[in-house]
Amino acid sequence: MVTDFEFDPEKSLVATTYLAHRSGETMYTILKMVYVADRLHLERYGRPITGDRFIAMKEGACPSKIYDSMKVLRGENNHNHLPDSEHYLEVDATTYDVAVKDMPSLDALSASEIECLDETVSILARCGRWHIRDLAHDAAWKETGRNGTMDLLAIAKSIENGGEILARHLETRFSS
């Protein structure tokens, strides 16, 4: 099973803060937006943005380490994988609303990563949070047991028009 690329804490913090700032959404919608943006970047450029491992939770695909870090920000006692995130983000423990306290530099993100984050925000604006939720319930999510780790190859295969080619490329890359 290919589960993830290497997790990048800095990119993950910047991408999450960027999505929170641009969308004004709650923690749960932002987590699904991370999945949508990572999947979009995987489709277009052959790699995800964050490198986080996705879990097939009841309400959709969820980035594991970013979720753990958001729970720390709402006051739960978990491990924070996003360095200095408390300087940039705040999560209300009751409503799960996310407030952006400060924006980190976007230098950690490439132009293609910002493009996919912006497109995800655009999808949200056009179609709403329930559509984002639906996108996080794709074929890869459906074939993974609840609370199981989603296979990156399954995510790649779920991409229309070329997912099988991408999956073969990833399989070759990770089997060496």
Q: Would you give an account of this structure?
A:
By secondary structure, the protein is mainly alpha-helical. The protein has one domain. It contains nine helices and four strands. The strands form two sheets. The chain has a two-stranded antiparallel sheet. A two-stranded antiparallel ribbon has the order 3-4. Strand 3 and strand 4 form a beta hairpin. Helix 2 packs across helix 5. The chain is globular. The two termini are about 15 Å apart.
In short:
With 176 residues, this protein is mainly alpha-helical.
Produce the secondary structure layout.
Elements: H1 9-23, H2 27-45, E1 54-57, E2 60-63, H3 64-73, H4 85-88, E3 89-91, E4 98-100, H5 111-127, H6 129-135, H7 139-142, H8 152-157, H9 163-175
Antiparallel strand pairs: 1-2, 3-4
Helix pairs in contact: 1-2, 1-5, 2-5, 2-6, 5-6
**Which spans of ≥5 residues are poorly predicted at pLDDT below 50?**
none
Q: Report on the biggest sheet.
A: 2 strands, antiparallel
Strand-and-helix sequence, N→C? HHEEHHEEHHHHH
Instruction: State the helical fraction.
Output: 40-55%
Number of DSSP helical runs = 9
Q: Numbering strands along the chain, what is their spatial order in the largest sheet?
A: 1-2
How many strands in all? 4
Structural class: mainly alpha
Number of domains: 1
> Whole-number radius of gyration?
15 Å
Mean pLDDT: 92
Shape: globular
Distance between the termini: 14 Å
Strand content: 5-15%
